[in-house]
């Protein structure tokens, strides 16, 4: 144990002489790569492309320090390429592709094509180079993929998360000498033979909060004598929240038959393991179908960092503890056969002193009460290295030391510090400097912690339409501000008004200011309406501004017309509390119709379901399965809306009339869940055979619906508690039905709950509203015979009507209930309507004298 760490700490004249020798031989390399243009090429791939084919001796490419973001491939036709970096910490080949990421060439990257570097040419070697994939903990994102035989690395780093190094080809030979490899899941995996000597294998603390991981995932093929062998390697402790097993058997699971099942082989010889990083059981199976009898998972004298043999009494019973005699089977010659990397590449196999290399420098921004946290680790543990964190208020400004620490030993690799979060509107910049006399100093990348003044908005506006004298319907967006140093000023264009409470309205000359509390404007519903004093077109930008923040502008347009906007009355109403029939008392110039399901069924009302199919509390209750399950495995549509799962309604005009239908009201939610509980509505004039359109938004429980969740199929309403929604079929214009047309609309639902019961979409009081020229009376309202003013009204209105000996005025709610009956004075031509007791909303006022019937709509404010 002492010899292991003494070797790593040995730095002196011999190492300095080696550096001088490398510099002296720089001119002996075939080509030089330098980002600054001082070499033959500026990219590594360009140098590889220019290299000859069919070599039988190494062709050396020297790479000067720099970060090279490129995808590097060594083709099979170019053997014996050798990449030599100026320094392992200074030469970085980096990429950020991952499994599922869109590929500019078409489609998406797979796990294998995500690799930053792919080696397909045999007899390849690399020295003093960092290969990395910066994707993070997951998904699969390779730093290195090896498909060739006889590939060797010395003093290299491999940085990644899931699947860092992939040795892709069965029985091919790979040699890693004095390297550093890190990751989180299966970060050394594949079917090749791999010998790792004197390497640091660092299982990182997972940033995604995961508590476990796997170091290797060998899928060694049958009849292959060796898989992975690790000789005298070091597994340092991480930060303590993620523990690992030494390997799991890829290709040995329930999906594999014995004919194609992997015979996984991983052996750790004389490994030093830090505290609390490897789980006591040591190894993992893949699943219940794993055949452990064909696995060779073995250790020989694993020790802790004090040199004591580890307690391996809790290792899985099918793993092996090797004897001294067993180790003769795992020599370099036995594993690699006729290939000797030590002979092919001079000075390749003797151990060398490690270099300083800072890895995984990360920052997590704090809050006003929690400091920002900075962490990093050393690739190779070296005693006496000084680590300094520097900070500056500008990226290229003057940096001053924030924190200094010195590595007390050659065991610990993890370091950390904190700093107060910047003030609002301020950015701070940090880097780490690692140094020790006699070694090359390494500077990390620079990280930025910011609290920029930021204004955010969610939603967009549909065109506004106003009837002169009355404001338009309100629309809403969400606004918020973060790290503000002053209030958020919201200025509408001319003709428009804004409000944060629906009561007090602000204009372009007197804008709204939302004050910042603790530098924050919490998410606020901003209501906007068109309320111009003259007819015309009104367009412009709604601006949101605050000191130091980038101003946000939202485009807005609308029309103010001289004529009042059309008023709507109830056309059809489905209460859904006892059955699915519509109300004959409310039906206005339309035929009776009942809705139908596609792939939804009513609740069966069982004790398991817990919800009746129809009730006053829930209305109609339905789901893909009668007991309330939405699971895709049980035939449901789960958390995703599906065009084949819906309830369909129809509005069919009678008597060959033309009808305008503008809005839909309904009350809905999903019982027992808010997991991906979505509602979307689409409509058609042809029964969805030739046309289809989404509703265009409307109102919900907190005001107008945002454009991001307005009931469209791609922007569904996110259902929470039982709430009422009013949706516009086609903006302010509505849908006009010609005599031969009918309106068909479909309600689509989804639910992501994993429960197998008691999750039902519920629906009640489905109301369709349309133009006021279609009424339940025998005649249309005539302006010269019946007039209602003021309208809209607050408390009291006057109805002008024909004189009669006996006449009555009845007021109906939007749902068709009679809410007031007033007897007219005999012979009078006007009747006063006292409306204080009525709630705000739309009503139908109907006058009758027994012979004549007239109606008008009323808006109560």
From TrEMBL:
Presence of the UniProt keyword Ion transport in the record: no
Stretches assigned to the Pectinesterase catalytic domain: 30-335
Pfam families in alphabetical order: Pectinesterase (PF01095), Por_Secre_tail (PF18962)
GO annotations of cellular component type: cell outer membrane
MF term (GO), any: pectinesterase activity
Residues in the signal sequence: 1-26
Domain Secretion system C-terminal sorting per the UniProt entry, residue ranges: 788-853
GO biological process terms, semicolon-separated: cell wall modification
Keywords: Aspartyl esterase, Hydrolase, Signal
Family: Belongs to the pectinesterase family.
Name of the protein this chain belongs to: Pectinesterase catalytic domain-containing protein
Biological source species: Hymenobacter crusticola
